[in-house]
Amino acid sequence: MEQRLASTWRMSVNEKKFIESSLLSDLRADGRRPFDYRRLTIKFGREDGSSEVQLGNTHVMAFVTSQLVQPYRDRPNEGTLSFYTEFSPMADPSFEAGRPGEFAVELGRIIDRGLRESKAVDTESLCVISGKLVWAIRIDVHILDNGGNLVDAANIAALAALSTFRRPECTLGGEDGQELIVHPPEVRDPIPLIIHHLPVAVTFGFIGKESIMVIDPTHLEEAVMGGRMTVTLNTNGDVCAIQKAGGDGILQSVIMQCLRIASVKAGDISSKIKNAVESFNTERALRKIKRHSSSSAVEVSEPAQKGGTELSRTHVGRLNSTPEESGVGQSNGMEVDGKILQQETSRRDSGAQSFIGGPSSW
Amino acid sequence: MEFVSPEGLRLDGRRPMEMRQLRAKIGAVDKAHGSAYFEMGNTKVIAAVYGPREVQNRSQQLNDQALVRCEYTMANFSTGDRRRKPKGDRRSTEISLVIRQTMEACIMTHLMPRSQIDIFVQVLQADGGTRSACINAATLALADAGIPMHDLVTSCSAGYLNSTPLLDLNYVEDSAGGPDVTVGILPKSTKVTLLQMDSKLPMDIFENVMQLATEGCKAVANYIREVLLEKTKERQKFHGV
Amino acid sequence: MRDIESLRLNQTQKLRFEKALEQLDFLSAAANSNACVAVADTILVDHQDGLLKGHGTTDFDGELVATVCGVVERVNKLVYVRTLRARYKPETGDIIVGRVIEVAPKRWRLEINFTQDAVLMLSSITTGEDIQRRQTADDELNMRSIFVENDVVCAEVRGVQHDGSLHLQARSQKYGKLERGQLLTVPPYLVKRRKQHYHYLEQLGIDLILGCNGFIWVGEHIDTKDDMVEDQVAKSEQQNENPGDNFSKETYTSVEIRQNICRAANAVRVLCALGFNITADVIIETVKLSNSVDIHEMLGPEFYVLVAESEVERRRSSKRI
Question: Does the UniProt entry include the keyword Transcription (chain C) (predicted)?
């Protein structure tokens, strides 16, 4: 309603007719079959809880952050999950910066319903102190490029980000046992969220008078279609949410058919997300390992490079002479650690690149 | 909490397949070109339609069809606690969009190019199923205004609690956290134009619940048709030949 | 206009009202109660060839279906649905009354209860003194001296433009700005197209203009010749004199005429609320009927009942004839 239609790109009659007539022979404008998805790539950023999804030309990023807040009065034992979208004007000329248009609100609410009402994320585990402090998880989705089917792409991005997000661990401690200590990631490993199931959104477009179904409509097809339906399902055969907001009418049998097709597609996408998350997790673990061993390797190899005579002696000498100083001087934690490690390695085989286990110190 | 007693009665004494009482009145708002007041049990809504009239914002004028605008608001006093923001919050924006797209599917917009049809719906008392009541009221108001439509649009909601599909949920049943399916159909062709669902449901149970809601919509359609016919006859009577 | 149900009729009034309704029903029953349809009802037709589908109908799977609520009319091979609450349907030559909402270059935009605003071109009105005079740039700049926003204007439909909006003209002296009266809005279907739309009610001394678009003007009678010239001349004189003298220059409308205007306006309101056709005769009769009642009582329940009863009489007598 409030959109500036003047800056919208309009579709030509020629393109419209072409899309409709080629669908009659089961062919879409970009060469896909009616029930094919476009190429989906899921990438992750360096931090936990950030993901970047590309579905054909549609480009979406999601970020998950957490904060300690007071819970709602009627739900004192549960954390909260909130979902925000940002439709950047660079994605589409009809998006305006600032206040979200009605389509942005609709997209936010579809994904919000799919995640929250179906209890995909376990909110009870987010409770820290009942009635006083709970974790509030906030998912921000930024639309970078609108190539059609923003709902599916944003949903996948949100799920991927949630799967890799880790929240800091916190324990009750302090003098009276009531103080909350939030452990920084260096001290304790952050904990992933408990996700019961992945609700995947599959969008159908209905084009033409015969209401031919297509999955994953592109930007062009969205301008032509007479109706759309977004079905959110998980791999257990449950329907989590459906949104068909007006548009052309379709028969009930067609709806059930859509649901069956969607469950197959949801399975595909779920496994893709899971694979991507797994590979991210292994890479993350590897990175942690690499960092530890690389730090000791540097310290050990330095004296080795310098001939190992004077410097190593001074190093070792300093350490030996002032063992208390290293304990007291906590200025640079890394330095101290490095020295301790060096001490340890110098005691052991200096050439060995031993794997140092224990809690991560980074 | 038990929503269906062992005898098969719900919290307000209805059977699972029973709808709440419907009441409709056409011509509730004098100044509007078409208006209606609709009640579904304790949910009361009022709808007013203005149009077709000149487009107020020239840049939005469509040269081949009418522009349909819709605004959904809930009165401050409609729910138990006073609402702080009657319109402009995300839920109202989404429901405005949903109602607009649903009505656009049935209005023959190409007969009225370069004009604007405004639909204003306000909820006076909310007790579950406000979306459905608003769509039913809007249909009545559009028919009252004499705007040509392909077909009526009627809507009804259904849910699934205590392993029973329930028709036409009220507020208590709705906030129980179970699934809520809202269906809007075009009665003549029995085609589904609006379908919204939240919370989890296995697929086969969902089919049953959707079927139940569709039956509810058909019942509403019969009632609306009767109301419209009666009003037309009454007007015709006064008008003479 | 007020709804009948909001009237508080006492018991006897209710009985009388219902009796009148029944009689109306009886009088009109023969013609058309079966023919009423709601949206999406099938219209029963014999499937002849060459059946013309008119307004308010559409084809659905080979059946003829109504798209609006109304009465089905059949004229030879044409089948259409006549709605009762629809918008005004313009035809060339209709007399309409409108309100100016915008002064644009060389034209005025009028609001006339239609899907789009109507356009009254500067070249389509008489500018006063010399009808044949060529229009100069001065005329354009002085458009505001003729009609300003919110003026009520009476005009004739010249034609329908390609984009659906109306083109108006006000070429003769009887059209133009209307002053000193009331503008009423009624649903357009209550005003039938007749030969004459201007009525001068002599006994009351008022002018009555029944616009086909549902805008009705009830005002003080002004001699139709040269009223626009009068305005122009008067205004140009005023410009030379003190602007403060404006009000004293205008003539004073007497209380009696104003009361008559109110009576006529209330009569129109009552007829509109009851849904009866509005013609000059009906209005005159209703005003006569109201002479026994105070003006503000005309909108009370007793008068409604009286009007309903007199309508029954009228229809009965017209049926006999």
Answer: no
Asked if the C-beta of B132 comes within 8 angstroms of chain A's C-beta atoms, the answer is no
- CATH class of the domain at B22-239: alpha beta
Q: What is the pLDDT of residue C174?
A: 75
Nearest CA to A151 out of A101, A186, A112 is that of A112
What is the per-residue pLDDT across C102-158, written as a single tens digit (0 to 9) for each? 888 888 999 988 888 899 988 888 755 555 566 677 777 788 888 888 989 999 998
Q: Quick one: pLDDT at residue A176? A: 65
Specify the CATH number of the domain A5-286: 3.30.230.70
- Is there a contact between C168 and C110 (Cβ–Cβ < 8 Å)? yes
> pLDDT tens digit string along A58-77?
999 999 999 988 888 888 88
Of B151, B106, B98, B192, whose CA–CA distance to A257 is shortest?
A: B192
User: At CB < 8 Å, which residues of chain C contact B?
Assistant: 1-3, 21, 24-25, 27-28, 31-33, 36-41, 56, 58, 60, 65, 67-71, 83-87, 111, 115-117, 163-165, 189-190, 274-277, 315
How confident is the model at residue C6, as a pLDDT? Answer: 64
- Summarize pLDDT for B157-205 with one digit per residue, the tens: 999 998 899 999 999 998 888 899 999 999 988 899 999 998 889 999 9
The shares of helix, strand and coil residues in chain A, as percent rounded to the nearest 5, are 40, 25, 35
How many angstroms separate the CA of residue B35 from the nearest CA in chain C? 11
pLDDT tens per residue, range B28-64: 888 899 999 999 999 999 999 998 888 888 888 888 8
Q: Rounded to an integer, what distance in angstroms lies between the CA atom of residue A145 and that of residue B47?
A: 38
**Under 8 Å between Cβ of B177 and B185:** no
Contacts of C232 (CB under 8 A, 6+ apart): C128, C129, C145, C146
pLDDT digits (tens, 9 = 90+) for A278-306: 999 898 888 878 766 654 444 444 444 44
Of C3, C32, C58, the CB nearest to B236: C32
CB contact under 8 A, B203 and A117: no
CA distance B144 to B139: 9
Cα–Cα separations (whole angstroms), residue C264 to B138, C175, C195, C257, C295 = 35, 21, 21, 11, 10
What does the pLDDT look like over C30-73, one tens digit per residue? 555 567 888 888 887 776 667 888 888 888 887 888 999 888 88
The angle at the Cα of A238, spanning A235 to A243, to the nearest 5 degrees, equals 110
Q: What is the pLDDT of residue C130?
A: 55
The residue count for chain A: 362
Greater confidence, C30 or B20?
A: B20
Contact C239, C215 (CB under 8 A): no
Task: Quote the CA–CA distance of A147 and A59 in Å, as a whole number.
Answer: 8
- State the average pLDDT over residues B86-115: 89
Residues on chain B touching A109 (C-beta within 8 angstroms): 90-91, 94
**What interface predicted TM-score (ipTM) does this complex get?**
0.88
Residue C283: C-alpha distances to residues C95, C201, C231, C278 (Å): 19, 10, 30, 7
Burial category of A327 from C-beta neighbours within 10 Å (exposed 0-12, middle 13-18, buried 19 and up):
exposed
CB contact under 8 A, A105 and B196: no
- Residue range C38-86 in CATH 2.30.290.10: no
CA A253 vs CA A202, A256, A344, B129, B207: distances in Å: 18, 5, 71, 25, 10
What is the SS3 assignment for B23? strand
Q: Has residue A149 got a pLDDT over 50?
A: yes
CB-based contact C69 B231, cutoff 8 Å: yes
Q: Give kind and range of the element (H or E) at residue B109.
A: none
Q: Considering only CB atoms, which residues of chain B are within 8 Å of chain C?
A: 27, 30, 33-34, 51-54, 63, 108, 112-115, 143-152, 187-189, 225, 228-229, 231-233, 235-241
